[in-house]
Design brief:
InterPro entries: Transposase_put_HTH (IPR021027). The chain has about 70 residues and is mainly alpha-helical. Helices cover about 55% and strands about 0% of the residues.
């Protein structure tokens, strides 16, 4: 038997902006590494190890939590 719970959240304007930034940066990192995987064989470990090198090149990634980008 499976159970599930659904929760409705009511974020304020500041939280909505942060959620949108987080989703946008996560999508950017995903697409970036998807493109790199097409060019060369990368493992998940290689991608996580290379992630800090993206911060100087794309400073907007520092605005969100780094755990969501992994």
């Amino acid at each position: 038997m499976y159970k599930s719970y659904q929760f409705r959240i009511y974020p304020n304007k500041q939280q909505i902006i942060m959620i949108q930034k987080t989703f946008g940066c996560t999508r950017f990192v995903y697409n970036h590494y998807l493109e790199k995987r097409k060019e060369e064989q990368l493992t998940s470990f290689d991608m996580i190890k290379e992630l800090p090198n993206l911060y100087p090149e794309y400073p907007f990634l520092k605005e969100v939590d780094s755990c969501s980008l992994r």
